[in-house]
Design a protein that fits this description.
The chain is mainly α and 386 residues long. The protein folds into three domains: 55 residues, no CATH class; 113 residues, DNA polymerase, domain 1; 163 residues, Intergrase catalytic core (hpI Integrase, Chain A). 49% of the residues lie in helices and 10% in strands. The protein has 14 helices and seven strands. The strands form three sheets. Strands 1-2-3 form a three-stranded antiparallel β-sheet. A two-stranded antiparallel ribbon has the order 4-7. The protein has a two-stranded antiparallel ribbon with strand order 5-6. Strand 1 and strand 2 form a beta hairpin. Helix 7 packs antiparallel against helix 9. It is globular, with a radius of gyration of 28 Å. The chain starts with 10 loop residues before the first strand and ends in an 8-residue tail after the last helix.
């Protein structure tokens, strides 16, 4: 049995002023047999790519082509082989949290159900049966199932681009079972609830909650804030921290500065004074200079306070949805709210974050209310007849 060549990462080395990658290639001998031979390819001149990290992109591109060429010649390649050999390396450039989410979806929901199916034989019915099986085995919402479907669809989109699959993406027309539950309603804190929570918090968690509530930063962006990012009248979002991984902001739109209102500036000023008026370093930390674990802070301090004042804890995104809803309720246009939350797409702000009636709708209903009052005052009294 011919031994297969597994996914190769390549060995990067420097020689005579150039970067080379060493890899293995199966070659056919004169007697018809094959054997693995070691090869080396020149990637770049060291003068153009001085450091190993700079040439790493060229290495990744080469190994992806190398592995793609080996795998796609095999028509019997399974979805699992493509996912693990080609798709996982492809998503290494994505944010760490995104990669982890994709890998968990594959391991938890796809691998055992459809991983054995040959890539080129995969049909829409396979995706539909997979989604139906997941719905039957779990209590996942329609939104989560849609996300699982999107991940699988992305796998086939990449397969088409790599030449591993031809034809229409088979996942696009797969149905989400109609009997799965709708997602639970999300929550947005109103201004009175925010003020109530802030009133009873110690200064550090108070500063974090105020920044989340009055600037609308995401949890990772809160962890990534550093004092040079704070200009007094604005917060510059320069990074996002997930666990110990430092990422760029989620999108180009996310990197835009956020205005700081006076109430937030006062709280941040008091917090800054309490820790010695630092000019550099992480803004919210536990004393070791590393970004604070905000989930632990919420469980240990913020949630008990919120529940004690009768508000409840709805997660950090409750504050982000709160600023969207509060601004909209105060009459801000949804496009303005989108800019403050730094969403790339307006519909995301409107459909997922604003939890308030349109001010124009409220005004119309108030007008109806007033008209009914006038009619009630002028209408003749009608006595009910038995």
């Amino acid at each position: 049995m011919t031994k297969t060549v597994r996914y190769q990462e390549g060995y990067l080395f420097k020689h005579h002023g150039s970067w080379f990658v060493r890899y293995r290639e199966r070659v056919q001998l004169e007697d018809g047999s094959t054997k693995l031979c070691q090869r080396a390819k020149r990637l770049a001149v060291v003068e153009d790519y001085p450091t190993r990290s700079q040439v790493k992109t060229l290495l990744t591109e080469f190994t992806q082509r190398l592995n793609a060429g080996r795998q796609f010649a095999n028509p019997a390649m399974t979805l699992q082989e493509f996912f693990e050999g080609t798709y996982l390396p492809y998503i290494q450039e994505k944010r760490a949290s995104t990669r982890k989410g994709y890998e968990e979806i594959w391991r938890n929901h796809m691998e055992d159900r459809v991983g054995h199916i040959r890539l080129r034989e995969f049909r829409t019915v396979h995706a539909s049966k997979m989604l139906k099986a997941i719905a039957g085995d779990t209590d996942l919402s329609k939104t989560t199932l849609q996300h699982i479907k999107s991940v699988l669809s992305g796998v086939f989109t990449h397969a088409k681009n790599e030449g591993a699959f031809d034809g229409v993406n088979p996942v696009q027309d797969a149905h989400i079972p109609s009997n799965v539950r709708e997602p639970r309603e999300t929550y947005a804190y109103n201004l009175a609830q925010i003020r109530r929570i802030l009133e009873f918090l110690p200064l550090l968690p108070k500063a974090v909650v105020a920044t989340a509530s009055y600037a609308g930063l995401r949890e990772g962006e809160l962890r990534g804030l550093e004092w040079p990012d704070y200009a007094g009248d604005a917060l510059n979002v320069c990074r996002s921290v997930w666990k110990s991984v430092v990422n760029k902001p989620k999108t180009p739109a996310s990197a835009k500065p956020v205005p700081v209102i006076r109430q937030l500036a006062e709280i941040l000023g008091a917090y800054r004074d309490s820790i010695g008026k630092p000019s550099h370093g992480v803004m919210f930390h536990t004393g070791d200079g590393q970004p604070m674990d905000l989930d632990k802070l919420a469980q240990r301090v913020i949630r008990p306070v919120a529940e004690a004042v009768g508000v409840g804890w709805y997660g950090w995104h409750g504050f982000r949805r709160g600023i969207a809803s509060n601004l909209y309720e105060l009459g801000a246009d949804e496009k303005v709210v989108q800019r403050i939350l730094r969403h790339a797409k307006a519909h995301v702000t409107k459909e997922r974050y604003i939890k308030a009636f349109d001010p124009a709708v409220v005004a119309a209903m108030k007008k109806l209310e007033a008209t009914l009052d006038v009619l009630g005052q002028s209408a003749p009294i009608v006595h009910q007849m038995n």
